[in-house]
Amino acid sequence: MKVGIVTVHDSSNLGSYLQALGMQELVKEYGDEPYFIKTRSEFSVLCLFMGYNNAPSVRSLRGFIKFILRSIINFTSIAPKIRKYKRYKNDREKLDNIISIKEANIIGLDILLMGSDEIWNSNQPAFQNPLLYGAGIKATRKCAYAISVGNMDAKNWLRYPELLNYIKNLDAIIPRDARTSELLKDHGLSVEKTVCDPTLQVDIRRYMSDNFELPKKDYIVVYAYSVGKKMKNNIIRFAAEHALKTVAVSLPNAWCDEYINCSPLEFGAILSGAKYVYTSTFHGTIFSALYHTNFVSMNKMPKVAEVVTLMGIDEYAVSDDCEYSDFEQKLLADRNYNEFEDRIKIMKDNAKEIYMERIKNAMK
Question: In 3-state terms, what secondary structure has residue 225?
Fold first, then answer.
């Protein structure tokens, strides 16, 4: 069968790419042919990496000219973004089929899958695109799989009733997390049991590159959008006391000793080579655990807190204002990942059962 996938496969976020790759390999494992549907132009993707918001709701000729002028004046800050775009674009070559809506409608999709990732978080302008809800794409069966609303305001869909109407017309809605499930039910929608993220259903580690030059000195990875003052001090102190270099990965944190501007498929080598990891992200938490690296996860976001619990690693969660003694103790604690691996197997089996019953076999 031909399976279309609508997700964030072309962003500047490591996790977004890795979950997209997971969705592709998941579809292939079930014997079907995956096709990623383009939801924006390559120029829009480039603008995203450069830091220019090219969304229709905000773009203007004046804003674009100002962006170009700033880029010329501050070229040294733009150059790393260009390198990052090229690295990510190279990894996108691992995605088998990326086609337009027109091409998708010509070949005739049997199934259209929306997900994973938080593509229904309409708090974000990029996720107000009707295409992410299946609009204009023809398919025999339309389903949301491992879908998430992230931290979306529960009332936000009321401002975009057309998006909610698209969701109501889907054949099956399978959430990734409890918050998404509850919010959808609150809007009168019928949802299935939750399934884990594709990066936990497929072993993405086997696609990671091991050809990456790591720092010479032992290091602690910092993979976080922003780090509070107290946590930053904890990390710096820990690094100093344990003779470590602080290394920001993919997401710049200027206070770190080094910044590694890696691609998604280079991420695994960096985590594997790290002595420790601090992260506040969903996929940073997942991949730190998958690589059995000593890590702590700041679980401020609901989706991070839930995946920590699902994976049975609550003891490695920290708050942004935790004391140094707690931070150090959790990072240094010996890890036994046997229970974690057992949990992953159960989650995979449950997800496969739901996929086969509600998506694949439902076509018969």
Answer: coil
pLDDT score at 71: 63
Q: What is the rounded distance in angstroms from the CA atom of residue 142 to the CA atom of residue 359?
A: 9
**How confident is the model at residue 212, as a pLDDT?**
86
Helix (H, G, I), strand (E, B) or coil at 350: helix
How far, in Å, CA of 2 to CA of 4, rounded?
7
What pLDDT, on a 0 to 100 scale, did the predictor assign at position 336? 84
Going from the C-alpha of 16 to that of each of 119, 199, 226, 278, 283, the distances in angstroms are 10, 10, 18, 19, 8
Structural contact between residues 318 and 327, judged by C-beta atoms closer than 8 angstroms? yes
Strand order in the sheet with 33-37: 98-99, 33-37, 2-6, 109-114, 139-147, 172-175
- Identify the segments of the chain with pLDDT beneath 70: 52-76, 364
DSSP state for residue 315 in the 8-state scheme: G
In this prediction, residue 54 carries a pLDDT of 57
CA distance 101 to 179: 30
> What strands lie across the sheet with 294-298, from one edge to the other?
258-260, 245-249, 219-223, 276-279, 294-298, 317-318
Strands (E), the chain: 2-6, 33-37, 98-99, 109-114, 139-147, 172-175, 219-223, 245-249, 258-260, 276-279, 294-298, 317-318
Q: How far apart are CA 282 and CA 292, in angstroms?
A: 16
**What's the length of the chain?**
364
Beta-carbon contacts of residue 342 (< 8 Å; ≥ 6 apart): none
* The token pair that represents 182 in the structure block: 């509850």
DSSP-assigned letter for residue 101 = H
Query: Per-residue b/e over 206-243, b at no fewer than 16 CB within 10 Å?
Result: ebbeeebeebeeebbbbbbeebeeebbebbbebbeeee
Q: Are strands 172-175 and 33-37 parallel, antiparallel or unpaired?
A: unpaired
**Tens of pLDDT along 240-272?**
999 999 999 999 899 999 999 999 999 999 999
